[in-house]
Fold:
Amino acid sequence: MVFLGKLRKGLKKTRELLTSGIAKVFTGRGKIDGELLDDLEATFLQTDMGVKMAARLIDSVRELSRKEKSPDKEILLQKLEEDVAFVLGGEGVSLKVSATPPTVILVVGVNGTGKTTTIAKLAKMFSDEGKKVLVAACDTFRAAAIDQLAILAERAGASLVKHQYGADAAAVAFDAAEASVARGMDFLIIDTAGRLHTKVNLMEEMKKVRRVIAKKIPGAPHEVLLVLDATTGQNALQQAKMFHQALGLTGIVMAKLDGTAKGGILLAIKEELGIPIKFVGIGEKLDDIETFAPSDFASALFR
Structure:
């Protein structure tokens, strides 16, 4: 219930856009016709849920209208809520935890998405559960990134492995993998450089980091999570496509979900790429991250 409350607050702008748009579409209309469906689709698209997802919801509304000539707004909202929850995965997809610790999580994303803060949030979440967490500062491209991660890791109750600015990211990853095994860590969370997602050399660097980890810890990384900024809308979808093609993402962390009317981008990513949303960030504090629950998200989107 705490998560649902935070989520409803975070999705306020997106929800208001949807519900006010739906209310406006239905005002003074006695039936669902082509014009109404066009107006409804336009409302959906404003949330950046994408053409495919908007079309899916319109088909659902059309089917509902065949069963009930004049369904009221509440019946429609309930139907849309069910459809959204279904697309997002029903009960959700949980984090893959290795049977033999450490569980290795490779975190990727471009600069400015909230990647470093998200890593700290994940570290605190695991630490609060009594787990031993090690963070690897593999973003050696920016000195500030190393310093920021060191401060946040300490606040989150996690250990840190770092090298100097400009060091080989794969070397940092190797040392972190060795340390995580030697110290009996439960989780190893690896930060990566966040230069533009179109840079081929950056992708190759991350592939090298991945290979190094796999050699030291069989089966690693167990998760490859992409951190996206919800406020960027359709640009987030393009980032997801690029990273997924290069690295094979296992999940999305949607940061900055609070304060945007573009919350529908989660639906676009899941509908078009099939990548599950695993965590959402709904605030700036280290506690403001939650495991993603599709049914709660759908409810917060329309209620």
About this structure: The mean pLDDT is 89.
